[in-house]
Amino acid sequence: MTEYVKVEQADGVLTLTLARPDKKNALTNEMYGRLADALSAAESDAGSRVVVIRAEGDTFCAGNDIGEFAMAAMGSAGSEERHVVRFLRALAESSRPLVAAGNGRAVGVGTTMLLHCDFVLLGEDALLSTPFVNLALVPEAASSLLLPMRIGHARAFEMFALGEPVSAEQALAWGLANRVVASADLHAEADRIARLLAAKPAGALSATKRLMRAVDAIGRQMEVESAEFSRRLRSPEAREAFAAFMERRAPDFTQFDR
Ligand code: COA
């Protein structure tokens, strides 16, 4: 079976690479599971002092696999565990410094996962978007808390409601990223930063991270979002949004009211 998430470790750095480039690294349940497992294992692995999240291909991550959203919307997702919940928890609760290297499009969870990363590098070609409302959904990964906190209500509302991409330069100016680098240098630069962090005293570093993040509040927000997200996923307007994506046509939401 093809491995859609590659896990490698060297010199204290655990590198997780999204490797489903033909589907723009859209995340499946199985990929969430592998990411969650790797992040959880890093907690007790002295060889994983820092975690890097990056991607193969021209797109960092096109968000959740919309085919799987559609199956959940039709109630035919099966009974397997929803690993996304485990992944988001592991991301939020990770005590390891998380370094992200985002190139090209980062859509939905592709962008909201960056809000949990401690050091975000973007390629010059990066475009971040959170088009949950366009899919008749609501923000997840505690982004309804973290995004307005980071960039202010006005910008966050616009990102959620209009769903238009924000450029790397804009993201840097708004405090969504630490650095914008030439796309060709992105992975090398992320690795360099990760190695710098891996050489720091790990106890002080993770304590600093813990002091900076209100993990309990983040966890509570994820629960509230998750309940609303599940309701929205099964709504007629969401079914229309997923069908439109699959049929490569514009959705028509005018037939629905709240
Ligand atoms: N879920 C499932 N498949 C996806 C996907 C997703 N989120 N995003 C892209 N793909 C698939 C496409 O269906 C296509 O598959 P195909 O080659 O079998 O037809 C392939 O990836 C390439 O995508 P395509 O749309 O042709 O590439 P693009 O370069 O023109 O556009 C994106 C890239 C990311 C802008 C576009 O694919 C997109 O908008 N994707 C959906 C993003 C989204 O709304 N995610 C959910 C957020 S909550």
Topology:
Layout: E1 5-10, E2 13-18, H1 29-43, E3 50-55, H2 66-73, H3 83-93, E4 98-102, E5 105-107, H4 109-112, E6 119-123, E7 127-129, H5 143-151, H6 153-162, E8 166-167, H7 168-173, E9 179-181, H8 186-198, H9 202-212, H10 215-233, H11 236-246
Parallel strand pairs: 2-3, 3-4, 4-6, 5-7, 6-9
Antiparallel strand pairs: 1-2, 7-8
The protein binds coenzyme A.
Coenzyme A is lined by residues 23-24, 26, 59, 62-67, 105, 107-108, 131-132, 135.
Summarize the model shown.
The protein has 258 residues and is α/β, with parallel strands linked by helices.
Characterise this structure.
The protein has helices at about 30-45, 65-75, 85-95, 110, 145-150, 155-160, 170-175, 185-200, 200-210, 215-235, 235-245, and strands spanning about 5-10, 15-20, 50-55, 100, 105, 120-125, 125-130, 165, 180. The protein is an alpha/beta fold and about 260 residues long. It has one domain: 2-enoyl-CoA Hydratase, Chain A, domain 1, CATH 3.90.226. Strands 1-2-3-4-6-9 form a six-stranded mixed beta sheet, with helices on both faces. The N and C termini lie far apart (about 40 Å). Coenzyme A binds near residues 23, 62 and 131.
Task: Name some characteristics of this structure.
alpha/beta; 2-enoyl-CoA Hydratase, Chain A, domain 1; 11 helices; 258 residues; 6-stranded mixed sheet; binds coenzyme A; single chain; 9 strands; 3-stranded mixed sheet
Q: N-to-C SSE series?
A: EEHEHHEEHEEHHEHEHHHH
Point out poorly predicted stretches: none
Q: Report the CATH C-level class.
A: Alpha Beta
SS-based structural class? alpha/beta
User: What sort of overall outline do the alpha carbons produce when their principal axes are compared?
Assistant: globular
Number of helices: 11
Largest sheet: 6 strands, mixed
* Number of E-type strands: 9
CATH architecture title: Alpha-Beta Complex
What does the average pLDDT come to?
Answer: 96
The gyration radius over C-alpha positions equals 18 Å
Overall helicity: 40-55%
Distance between the termini: 42 Å
**Whole-number tally of structural domains:** 1
CATH topology: 2-enoyl-CoA Hydratase, Chain A, domain 1
Residues in β-strands, percent: 15-25%
